[in-house]
Amino acid sequence: MMATAAPLCSLENYLVLPDHTMDQRIAAVRKVLGRESVILGHHYQRDEVIRFADYRGDSYKLSQLAAQAAGRYIVFCGVHFMAESADILGRPGQVTILPDLNAGCSMADMAEITQVEDCWEHLVAAGLTSDSGEGITPITYMNSSAAIKAFCGERGGVVCTSSNAAGAFQWGFEKNSKLLFLPDQHLGRNTGYRMGIPLDEMIVWDPYQEMGGNKPEAIRRARIILWKGYCSVHQRFTPQHVARVRREHPGIRVIVHPECRFEVAQAADEIGSTEGIIKAVKSSPKGTEWAVGTEIHLVNRLGKELQDHKVISLDPSVCVCTTMFRITPQHLLWALENLGEGQVVNRISVDERTRYYARLALDRMLTLR
Ligand code: SF4
To answer: What is the pLDDT of residues 211-231, one digit of tens each?
Structure first.
């Protein structure tokens, strides 16, 4: 049994290590750990980190892989909510480690549990739902804290990913005539609109304003209440970027992530989740030119790997997820070498009650069509 006390090796000593020493030391400690440890890498991780990953994927795929992995120690090179999901879906006895605890997600942080509870109380007081969710189905994007997932699970709601959001909305509407969608307004709006819901039947709930900044009549009329959250990476893309890339590269295809603004999604040729973008680009005929609206590390990697295609970023100024970027090979080495010394550092552990209800919402997602 490994201890979780203070690390034997201090992180500060690792952060100054030169990059060229990483390969050898990471390989050496992995040999010691053998199949006990599994490294997961999100597609948005920098190249210097993702090359050590046993598995690559988007947040949900990685959480599922974590649960299936033989290893007891899951070293998750991603952000905090992803490591929480891996811990929730993991097998008993599995330990999830996030190499840098500061690797959060600005979008997930935009929906704090107290704010969401406050919003719900207002909706209950307005007579639009019962506390347990008869009236409004709460749905949260995978990119949210375990507490928000549990909030939805406890009130009859569900978690969704960017690839099954429409199925989740359909499921939610079969239960109630109204949805509360957390925390990404853009994914919610893009999904609702593609399902035929007019824009004026979707309102935005701003947690910093009284009644979310809405009139009672607007809340009553709304079919979808969108939480006022966004991804700072994907919200950077604008319709002007789409117009410019089409002007400069006639015939180019534009594909964007559904976390992009509504106007950008409307101007694009295709919308795709992270895995959806990879699939669309890889399966396109040789010679196809693509402008991709998502995180730059994934776009650059696709460009390098697919020499028969031309892949560029929709925005020439760099669109990095700065929190994902926090994880460096030095952080990874620190976590691994501590494990090699019998010490668990940066463990992500979700409490039992939260785990129970969050798991309920995640399991409901698996039943979606
Ligand atoms: S890309 Fe956006 S949604 Fe994804 S982890 Fe970074 S900030 Fe969060």
So the answer is: 999 999 999 999 999 999 999
Identify the residue whose tokens are 């940066």: 346
pLDDT of residue 3: 55
Please, what's the largest Cα pairwise distance for the chain?
64
Q: Which pLDDT score, from 0 to 100, does residue 64 have?
A: 80
Q: Which of 98, 102, 107, 313 to mutate to test the pocket of ligand 1 (most atoms within 8 A of CB)?
A: 107
| pLDDT for the residue 4 | 56
Residues with Cβ < 8 Å from 359, sequence gap 6 or more? Answer: 88, 89, 153
Please give the number of the atom of ligand 1 that sits closest to the Cα of 323: 6
CB 46, CB 325: distance < 8 Å: yes
Q: Which residues pair with 253 in a beta bridge?
A: 290
Q: Which residues line ligand 1 (CB under 6 A)?
A: 44, 79, 105-107, 143, 231-233, 295, 321, 323-324
